[in-house]
Amino acid sequence: MKTTLLLILFFSIALSASAQQNSFDYFGLPSPEDKIELFAPGIVSLENTKEYSLAVSPVGDEVFFATGTWPECKIMHVKKMESGWSKPEVAFFSRDCFAVEPAFSPDGKYLYFSSSKGEKDIKQYSIRRMEKAGNKWVNAKKIIDITNPDILEFHPSITNEGTIYFCAWDLKTNKGSIYKSDYLNGVYSEPAKENVPFEGNCSVTNPFVDPAGKFIITSTEVENSKSKYDAFISYRNKEGWAKPVNFGKRFNSSEVDDSFDISPDGKFLFIYKNDNVYRTETKGVIQ
């Protein structure tokens, strides 16, 4: 009898945890399936403004996204209440400064973003982190700032182990590179350039890394290409990152195609283009 009760309790907890991990309701919107559709008009995709870099909490109760044109950017916040979703408003940590490109850690304990708070030059963005304490975000602090005033840090993406991948933008060359910083014993390592094997002198920006480290998506301007920035994906193999593959005409155009992110449940690709957020299923797109 005790064994039966313990099994029932175990499976109840497991089911509860599973439901909690995948509880984002996508604002009640049906799946676009293989179509690329404007996401959450009036909530996330707003009129007459630019929205991008959507971050959804792993338990589905909070959404952050960026709005505005760099360097004068803000992070917006939407929270799930008992009565439904709140209206989008400027996140409290972005009210007195410029901030952009939020990202959750896979376990939801930390929120990362890029900001120039406290800097005399508002272009001097670096990566910061806040931690969740109950229902509040606290202890915002700068965690990555390469000691070169010509290098700015953007678009953090975090693995299960806490490693941060990010874009280091060089103001002198006007090009980006992917860097990473490992998290060991509560300390971030010195950022190091990550070898994503593009050919030629490319600008590689805005990484999204699979939490398990299986693949990386970037927005890249390939040398001598006519299509400006395109989205590419590179899968991890025994030697490192495989040769990046272009996402193709379905996702890329002759104009600048901005970065991609993936929902925490892995089901949807968020695409940032035409100053709005779009969504499509990852099925058939990501291996």
Q: What is the N-to-C order of secondary-structure elements (H for helix, E for strand)?
A: HEEEEEEEEEEEEEEEEEEEEEEEE
Q: State the name of the first-level CATH class.
A: Mainly Beta
CATH homologous superfamily, by name? TolB, C-terminal domain
Number of strands: 24
Distance between the termini: 44 Å
Signal peptide: 1-19
Keywords: Signal
Pfam family, one: PD40
Please render the helix and strand layout as text.
Elements lengths: L1 H20 L15 E2 L12 E6 L5 E8 L2 E10 L2 E2 L3 E2 L8 E6 L5 E6 L10 E8 L2 E9 L6 E8 L5 E7 L4 E7 L1 E2 L2 E2 L3 E2 L9 E7 L5 E7 L7 E9 L2 E2 L3 E2 L13 E3 L5 E6 L2 E6 L6
Antiparallel strand pairs: 1-24, 2-3, 3-4, 4-5, 4-6, 7-8, 8-9, 9-10, 11-12, 12-13, 13-16, 14-15, 17-18, 18-19, 19-20, 19-21, 22-23, 23-24
If you had to describe this structure to a student in words, what would you say it looks like?
The structure is a single chain. This protein has one helix and 24 strands. The protein is mainly beta. The protein has a single domain (36-281), classed as TolB, C-terminal domain (Neuraminidase), CATH 2.120.10. Strands 2, 3, 4, 5 and 6 form a five-stranded antiparallel β-sheet that branches. Strands 17, 18, 19, 20 and 21 form a five-stranded antiparallel β-sheet that branches. It has a four-stranded antiparallel β-sheet with strand order 1-24-23-22, with no helix packed on it. Keywords: Signal. Residues 1-19 form the signal peptide. Pfam families: PD40 (PF07676).
